Structures are given as C-alpha cells and as structure tokens.
C-alpha cells in the first residue's frame, strides 16, 4: 500500500493536504482499545477514548473483568484480516498520529463507541450520539457495574 508523508506545522497539523496511511492486515497491530500500529506508525483513533489495560470493570452479573483488555480485543476483532486506512489529522499530546481509520469499510472509532468499548470525546458529535445509544443499551463498558468513564 502507499504511504504519503506531508510536512506538518509546529502544532502537528497537516499542511492542508490529507495525509493517508494504509497497511495490509499483516502490517497492522492493535496496541490497545484506541491505538493501532500501521507498519512503523502509531495511530490513535480520533475522537475516542478506550480504557487502559488493567482497568477493572464488572459485568452485569457482578464478575470483574479487565475492560481495557476487552476493548483491545474488540478493536482486534474489527481489524482482523482487513487492510486498514487512516486519514491523519494532527498529533496528540504524546506525539501519536490522530486519525479517522477504517478497516474493510468499517469506521473503527464509530464501531468502538457504538459497541460500547470506547467513549466519545465531547467534541466528536456523531460519536457522542453513538455513545449515548451504547449507554442506553448497556453495551460494552456501559453494562451494569461498568466504569463511569474509560
């Protein structure tokens, strides 16, 4: 696949040209519930926050589980066997590329939020609606006993 690098300004924003990075399935690794590695580039899914590994949650029956690990598995299931393409839109405070990514036509951020394995950032309009619906249906992190936030 093709990787295009575009110089960024001092704040990490792309210079007006969309920066796209793509990788075939063997070159995609899931780091956690909101972070991927495409070849040598770490990419955070824009507009979402997933719990860190080790965060303890309870399921509807009161059993504890590692909800960060569950979120990581959810993202891994979404990308398994699929090429991933990301539109990079700057960098986060840790220097990771922030991007809207899809795998096989699935918007990864939207899917993580709508299935309840990530929370939407307050400025991510459509994702906030998806999070509200996931909360109403008790999905993923939002099942009874889950965290108040990731």
Description:
The protein has one domain: OB fold (Dihydrolipoamide Acetyltransferase, E2P), CATH 2.40.50.90. 21% of the residues lie in helices and 31% in strands. The protein has helices at residues 67-79, 108-114, 125-136; strands spanning 19-23, 28-32, 35-38, 41-45, 48-49, 56-58, 64-66, 84-91, 97-103, 106-107, 119-120. The strands form 3 sheets. Strands 1, 2, 3, 4, 8, 9 and 10 form a 7-stranded mixed beta sheet that branches. It has a two-stranded antiparallel ribbon with strand order 5-11. Strands 6-7 form a two-stranded antiparallel ribbon. Helix 2 (108-114) packs parallel to helix 3 (125-136). The chain is globular, with a radius of gyration of 15 Å. The protein starts with 18 loop residues before the first strand and ends in a 14-residue tail after the last helix.
Attribute tags:
150 residues; alpha+beta; 21% helix; single chain; 3 helices; globular; OB fold (Dihydrolipoamide Acetyltransferase, E2P)
Question: What's the arrangement of secondary structure elements?
Answer:
Elements: E1 19-23, E2 28-32, E3 35-38, E4 41-45, E5 48-49, E6 56-58, E7 64-66, H1 67-79, E8 84-91, E9 97-103, E10 106-107, H2 108-114, E11 119-120, H3 125-136
Parallel strand pairs: 4-9
Antiparallel strand pairs: 1-8, 2-3, 3-4, 5-11, 6-7, 8-9, 9-10
Helix pairs in contact: 2-3
Based on Cα principal axes, name the global outline. globular
Major β-sheet annotation: 7 strands, mixed
Helix content: 10-25%
- Whole-Å distance between the termini? 33 Å
How many E-type strands? 11
Q: Count of helical segments?
A: 3
Assign the structural class, choosing from mainly alpha, mainly beta, alpha/beta, alpha+beta, or little secondary structure. alpha+beta
**Low-pLDDT ranges:** 1-15
CATH topology assignment? OB fold (Dihydrolipoamide Acetyltransferase, E2P)
Strand content: 25-35%
Order of helices and strands: EEEEEEEHEEEHEH
Based on the coordinates given, report the CATH architecture.
Answer: Beta Barrel
Q: What Rg is obtained from the alpha carbons, in whole angstroms?
A: 15 Å
Q: Mean of the pLDDT scores?
A: 84
Tally of discrete structural domains = 1
CATH class group: Mainly Beta
């Amino acid at each position: 696949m093709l990787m295009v690098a575009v110089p960024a300004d001092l704040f990490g924003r792309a210079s007006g040209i969309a920066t796209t990075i793509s990788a075939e399935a063997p070159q995609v690794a899931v780091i956690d519930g909101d972070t991927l590695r495409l070849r040598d580039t770490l990419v955070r899914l824009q507009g979402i926050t997933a719990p860190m590994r080790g965060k303890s949650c309870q399921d509807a029956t009161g059993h504890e589980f590692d909800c960060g690990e569950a979120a990581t598995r959810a993202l891994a299931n979404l990308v398994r066997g699929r090429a991933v393409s990301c539109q990079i839109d700057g960098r986060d405070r840790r220097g990771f590329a922030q991007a809207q990514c899809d795998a096989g036509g699935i918007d990864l951020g939207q899917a993580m939020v709508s299935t309840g394995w990530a929370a939407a950032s307050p400025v991510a309009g459509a994702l906030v609606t998806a999070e509200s619906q996931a909360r109403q249906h008790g999905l993923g992190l939002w099942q009874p006993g889950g965290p108040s936030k990731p």
